[in-house]
Structures are given as structure tokens and as C-alpha cells.
Amino acid sequence: MLNRQGRPTQAGEGESQRHETFTGNKALQQIEPLIFEIGHHETTGVDIDKPAPFKSRLGKHARQGEIGLPGLSEPEAMRHYVRLSQKNYGIDTGLFPLGSCTMKHNARLNEKVARLPGFSDVHPLQPVSTVPGALDVMLELARYLMTLTGMPAVALSPKAGAHGEACGMMAIKAAIAAKGEGATRNVVLVPESAHGTNPATAALIGFSVKAVPARPDGTVAVEDVKALLGPDVAAIMLTNPNTCGIFEPQIVEIAAAMHEAGAYFYCDGANFNAIVGKARPGDLGVDAMHINLHKTFSTPHGGGGPGAGPVVLSERLAPYAPVPFIYVEGGKARLVEHKADAPEGNDPFGRMTAFHGQMGMYVRALAYMLSHGADGMKQASEDAVLNANYIRAGLADLMSLPFPDHPSMHEALFDDDWLKGTGVTTLDFAKAMIDEGYHPMTVYFPLVVHGAMLIEPTESESKASLDLFIATLRDLAIAAKGNDKSRFTAAPHHAPMRRLDETRAARQPVLKWEKPAPVKEAAE
Amino acid sequence: MRYLPLTETDREDMLARIGVTDVDALFSDVPNGKLLKEPLDLPRAKGELEVERILGRMSAKNTAAGSVPFFVGAGAYKHHVPATVDHLIQRSEFLTSYTPYQPEIAQGTLQYLFEFQTQVAALTGMEVANASMYDGSTGTAEAVLMAHRVTKRRKAVLSGGLHPHYIQVVETLSEMANDEVVALKPDVRATEDILAAIDDSVSCVVVQSPDVFGNLRDLKPIAEKAHAHGALLIAVFTEVVSLGAVVPPGAQDADIVVGEGQSIGNALNFGGPYVGLFAAKSKYIRQMPGRLCGETVDADGRRGFVLTLSTREQHIRRDKATSNICTNSGLCVLAFTIHMTLLGQAGLTRLAEVNHANAVKLADALSGVKGAEVLNESFFNEFTVKLAKPAAEVAEALAAKGILAGVPVSRLLPGAGLDDLLVVANTEVNTDEDRAAFVAALAEVL
Ligand SMILES: Cc1ncc(COP(=O)(O)O)c(C=O)c1O
Question: Which fold has domain B83-339?
């Protein structure tokens, strides 16, 4: 037996005063320097043999001098990144109700299959005859997306939602040009509530943007759209369900009005996760809609990406889909990589990206779809909507709902009216949520309500998790109204960092590490 | 369904709390007749085992690069990625977080972005780098737009050595935006007279080195002429490992540098996701696209990091933004920066040396095959071989023999009269046996 003598089993007596640590660390929370401060120029964590002497063919292009980058040995690197990871909040940490972003569970099965060598270790330009399984994945994903949306075509290659928007709007521009109206139709209608990527996309492609006002109930009215229609209008970019979390009740009429005016309906499908298996954009008159595979179909958000933004297209726009795409003829799949190879009747508008798009995301999304099935995807949408409405019901008496007249879809939108006079802002409230162990909701978006708080719980939360979240937000709301201001204005208190000075970062931008100047000798 | 925590009882209780009897009451805004009553015509839910089987079968139909002698490049490269990289990027806190909108609980992401920006700036020899674009091709199109904003001109000149897919991406976006593009003819031997295309109407010149045919190009004279005419030089690379061996574009006075970062840390993935590297001179920073991470302090005065200069971005600037990009290549950035940190300059320099040494060996060996001629004067880890037969046929024949030999130029540029050219890449993963097998098989096929 080991000698346990002298090992106390209780904290010693005396004062229970807290001390600042000598290191600044707080147990599991460690201060981690930059790699440039801990690494060395001669260190490497990768062992590679020096090649036998050979005659260089770099000519006059050989690098002179050092790159100026340190390396870390493997154990140092491991520790560096593990410590960094411990300063991050992810879905696996807790409820992550970031509205519009759909932070649902990321199944590890999807990670596993995406890493199968037949998917991860194949080159986009190796002979097509050696990758039939890759084409299978793309075709199967396309079939699911077309069935779920009720649309006849899909362009898979866009790299994220915004890139999908660009793809859809380019197809619209190409269709307009084909009708000989390219010179005249150059206005795109974008509701005030739209995500910033919508007007940015329209402008990117050379359209000018006209705002559609928001109605007091958070929806877009067909009369307001009609009032803006004319021979100069190319399209509307309408989000559905919209960024206030409401299904646009007049969407069918708006689509019809666009079509009647010779224009197109681009639907921002970032919120498609609310209606998968419940309603099909193809039944609503949509001409083009991107789908964020990283939202609706759960490919991991990865600290900001990568995503994937396939675009489903109507019959009218399908011929303009960009290369590459897969064309099936006589039961055989053909990868069309060049405009000139496009089948009869197709007139691809161009190419969105090198190669074939986000294969790694296609595999993950397909694994999600196969796992859920038609029944599971429908249930997921219903649960997402149920969860959002449950949170709304639990908070509506304390926090203000700008649009109480419509049920919420997958996300519940509050404004900051209820915080008036408390001295607490939406941002303060969000930072106090951090202290309670939650990632804040999306704040200050959409722009159509003051101090927006957009809460999207997703279907991945249990009832117990939602109940605790509601109880916590209620406690916070009562505290905010009860003069407990410093709980909020100085929050977060318990995060790895206190509130960060964003103004200073922008005023004196420091965007990379610079070697500190040598310390000057003390003045003589 | 294993991913859905709610029980039937939960659902009933929750509906009651909300005050409705049926979940469809929450979908009451869906127009009449548009709410689906039946599940769509797709298979029902499946267990893990079944899903793994289905996707496993699809995967098994493909020839993995690691299973054969493999020499395919032209914009995406097979390299060895240390096991540590894939382990770390799958840490939940990295994998399942998002854009660091709440910096106090996203310092992990922000700090690696700051380190990444520093690494990219050092590698390219530039003053600032952003937090990534989708990939090299979309980054190149964004660089052209950025140059248009800086110069207030709208004409780009593209070198004939630029990857044809990149050219098409730039052309597509430019055509849509009514900007002018002058794309020079495919330039197999790096002999084009790009200087002649530069005048006072040009906004930018886009030059890739190593180019798509593997040639290394001298950027300095192009930068000089461009600057003399008020235009910018955009330098592009698709093989970032080359920066361990060649003069970086920053040292040749490039104004914007764009590259594909896939080679470091990221798998081939049949073309995506990849990671676009984007760097520039700091005077152009306010015209840059994409996210930027910057240093600041917290309320206690401790160093921390935040997203910054976001008044350039879509969520603030909307139709006046420098780009529409939102989601970028976060996790691919992490893979890149971890691998780069493991390499350090010592490892990267060595890695580049091995790549070059291997490519030289292969070029020498292929030059000895009757009916094959290496065209490049200079190259890094990739070069172009002129064959006595159409390259696409040769590549197919070699694939049938279990060798993935390279990219026929006709795959990228059909109808350009370059059907006898094969672009061949050789990295640290290729062994002497791989090369011997390639050379022997090629001799048989030709
Ligand atoms: C409503 C809406 N539209 C478009 C986008 C852009 O999508 P992505 O970030 O994938 O480019 C987002 C996501 O941030 C969004 O929430």
C-alpha cells in the first residue's frame, strides 16, 4: 500500500481568500503565446530527409534569404492548438442559438465518410474513368436537393451561400441577356430585412439595388413589390423563411408578380432548414435558390467555413447553369467541364470556381440526408420550428416581440424595446449570456428591428436543454430590468477574455505579428 | 432518429405550452395547398452502419491517389499531411464553432487566424494577408475586382500561363460586371510578350508562377511596367509549397498576391474544400475582400484578437461592400496553419527541396523516353511533357496500367491545338519506384 500519510482530504483551515495566479493562467484556461513567440526558425515538427545532391532547375528564381517563419516540434504544436481550442465555444460545448446560421449537431459519421480515401484522396483532374463513385455522390446529392426543393435542376459548384447567390443571379442575368433585355433590366429588388450578402451579390454582378420596405408585421407585401416593378427590374432577392423567422405569406403572389413583369425570383435559401419536407420552393414560384449545405444539411461550420452553396434552378434558368455539371445520357454520366461540351439546348454562363466544387461537403451532406431520410428531415424541420416557438412562448412575457402576429419558423426574433430605460443594450445582454455558459444569439441582425436578438435553437436541443435556456434568459431579463446593470455592461466576467476593444483594433490595425523592436538601453 | 432529442411526449407538452394542438399550426403562413402532407419520395432514415456501407461502396469505386503512382497536379497537389493536423482540426471547439462574432469565446479561432495571416504575409513577402477566400480561383477573381477599385479602371490582362479554370472564373465574373478582360493565348513556354499588353487603360496584370505549365516566371519587369502605367500586378500561384524554394512575389513588387493553399494541410477532396490565400500591400487594405483579424486588448488590458475593418464587408456595407463573401474557408485555414507551424521555414524549405529534387529526377528520366520531351526551361515540382501521341489517350492508357500520369492540357484547353501536352507533377509522396513505373509504362504506351 502506498503511504497516504500526510495527504489531507479536505481543504485546509484558514481564509478562503482568492488570489490572482502568478502566471495569469486560470487552471484549464491557459494564456497561450503566439507561435512566433514560442517557435524557432530552426525548429520543425516534420522530419524529411535531405535529397541527394542534384542539379536545380529553378534557374534565377531560387529564393534568397530566410522566409522568417518559426516551426514547432510536434508536442509543442499539439499543446498550442489544444490550448487555443479551449478558448472556443462550439456546438458540442453547448446551446449555440446563432440565428440565421443554423448551428445544428454535426454528426461524426459524416466526418468519417468524408475521409474515405475514395473521396478525400482523389484529384479533380484525374481521368474521369477513375472516379465514377465521385460522380455518383454528386448525382445522388443533386437528386436529393431537387426532390426536396421540387426544382428541376441544380448547380452544385458554388462554394458557400454568397457564392451560390452570385451563381443564381448570374443565371438570371444570362437569361435576361438571352432575351435581349440585358441593357434595360438592371435593377434588383432587395427587402430591407435581407442579409448583407444579397445586396452585395447584386452589386457584384453589376445590378443596382432598390430596397423593398418591410411591412410593420415583418413580411414583404406584394403591393410594395408591384409598386417597384417596371421594365428595368431584373429580379427580386427574397429570403424565405425570411430573416425575421417568418414564412413570407405572399410569396406565391410575389413570384407571380415578378414573372408577370418579365423578371425573376431569386430566393435566399439560407433558412431552408425550417421547411425541408414541409414545403417545396418549386411549388412557390422560385427561379433560383441557394442552399447552404453547412446550415440545412449540417456540414460543420469549422470556425467560419468551409461551406457549400448549391443552387437549384427553375426550368427557365436551368440551361444557363455554369460548368461543370454532370449530364446523364443513355444511363451514362458525363462530366461536362467546358461550354463547348454542353448538351444541345444548354448555354452555360461560365464557371464559378476551379474544379468541381466542395466535394468534401457533398459527402457530408449526403450522409446527413441518408441518415435522416425523408421522414427524419421532415421531423427535423418540425422540431426546429417547435423549439423556436417554445423558446418564444417561454420569453414573450418578458422580452419584446416585434412581430407577434406570425408564428416563428426555425428562429424567434426579439427586439430591444423591453430593455428601454435599463441602460443595458442588446450587446450587453449577449455578453451576459456568455457568462451563463451560452453562445449568444445573432444580434443586431436583421436591421429592420432595433437591437435585434435572433434566436435559432435548431432541432438538436432536448426539451431539458431548452427549459434551462429559457430559465436562464428569464433570470437575465429580470436582472436587466431590476437594476442589476453591471452584470451586463461589464460582461463577460468569466470568459477567457473580458470585453474586447473593437474600436481600437480598427483604428490602429495590427493584422500580423511583428518582431518587437529591441528594448532600448535605459537613457543615460 | 438518433440526431433528434425530442420525444413524442416532449413534442406534445411543448405544443401545449405554445398553445397549439398540431405542429402544422406553426406553418400557418405557408400558402394554401403548399404545405406537404406526405413525406417526399426519398428513402427513409438509416442507421450509421447502413449509411457507411452505401457511401463506402461509392468511395470504393474511385481510384485513390495514394493507391497508385500518382503525378496529377495542375492546381491541386497530393502531399503528405502530418497526422496531427487532422486530429487537431477535428477538436469539437474548432470544428463546431462558427465565424468569431463573439470574440470573448472565440479566441482560439481568432488567434489562429492572426497567426495564419502572419504566415501568409511572410510566405508571400507581402505586408498584409486576409483570413482566407474560398480558393485560389475565386480569390483571383476578387483580386481583379480589387484592382479595379484601386485603379478606377476596368480592364484586366491575364497571362497565358494562368490556370485555364482561373481564367474562366475571372472571365465569368468580369463579363457579368461588364468589365473588360484580355486573356493572352495559352503560353506553354513562357515566351509571351505580356509587357506589350500593358498601357494606361489597364487596371491589372495577372500572372501565375509557377504557371499552369510549370514554368517559373520573372515578375519584376511586369511589375515595373504595370506601375509605370498606373496598373497593379496580381501574382498568382497554385502550388504554395513552391514558396519554400522560389523568390516570393512580394520581393518582385507584386501589389496583390493570390494563391491556392490546398497543398499545405489539406487533402485533394476531388477539388474542394480548399483555401484561398490573399495578400496585398498594406496601402490597399481598405479595398481588400474578406475577413481580417486584428490585435487589440480586452477590458483588463490583456492582448486579444477580433475581426476588424469590417466596414469593408457585406454585413455592414451591403451593396457598397468590397465583396459578398461571408462564410470562407475557416477549417481549411486551420489545417493550413497547423501544417505550416509544424513545418516552419526549416521544414518548408526542405519539403520544397525534396519536391524539386523529385521533379528533376522525373524530368530527366522522362526526357530519356522516346516520343517524350520536357518543354520547361525552369520548373519547381511540375512541368509539361510533349508526347508523340495525344496526351488524353496516353493518360487513359496509363490509368489502365494503374498509373495516374498527369493532366492532359486538352482537359483544360480543348481545341487549343495542345493535345500532345501532358502536365506532370511530382511531390514528396512519389518514390523512385513510382517514377520507374511511370517511365517504363510510358515507354510502352508511346
Ligand atoms: C440569410 C442569409 N443569406 C445568405 C447568407 C450567406 O451564406 P454564406 O455565409 O454561406 O455565404 C447567410 C449566412 O450567413 C444568411 O444567413
Answer: Aspartate Aminotransferase; domain 2 (3.40.640)
Tell me how far the alpha carbon of residue B288 lies from the centroid of ligand 1, in angstroms: 20
User: Is residue A513 situated within a structural domain?
Assistant: no
Q: What is the pLDDT of residues A50-83, one digit of tens each?
A: 999 999 999 999 999 999 999 999 999 999 999 9
For the domain made up of B65-81+345-445, give the CATH fold. Answer: Aspartate Aminotransferase, domain 1 (3.90.1150)
Answer yes or no: do A277 and B129 touch at CB < 8 A.
Answer: no
pLDDT > 80? residue A149: yes
How far, in Å, from the CA of A499 to the mean position of ligand 1?
A: 26
What pLDDT does B3 receive?
98
**CA nearest A368: which of A156, A159, A108, A92?**
A108
Total domains in the fold of chain A: 2
pLDDT tens, residue by residue, A83-139: 999 999 999 999 999 999 999 999 999 999 999 999 999 999 999 999 999 999 999
- Domain ranges for chain B, please list them: 65-81+345-445, 83-339
- Beta strand B292-297 with B303-308 is antiparallel
Do A278 and A394 lie in one domain? The reply is no
Q: Whose CA is nearest to atom 9 of ligand 1?
A: B327
Look up the CATH number of the domain holding residue A426: 3.90.1150.10
Q: Which of A96, A140, A353 to mutate to test the interface with B (most CBs of B within 10 A)?
A: A353
Nearest to B29 by CA among A325, A244, A289: A244
- A133 vs chain B: nearest CA distance in angstroms? 4
A418 with A277, same domain?
no
pTM of the model: 0.98
From CA A346, how far away is CA B26, in angstroms rounded? 41
Q: Complex ipTM above 0.85?
A: yes
Structural domain includes residue A419:
yes
pLDDT digits (tens, 9 = 90+) for A458-476: 999 999 999 999 999 999 9
Q: What is the dihedral of CA B119, B125, B129, B132, to 10 degrees?
A: -70
CB–CB contact A106 B96 (8 Å): yes
**Residues of chain B contacting residue A57, judged by C-beta atoms under 8 Å apart:** 356, 359-360, 363, 376, 378-379
- Return the H-helix or E-strand segment holding A335: strand A332-336
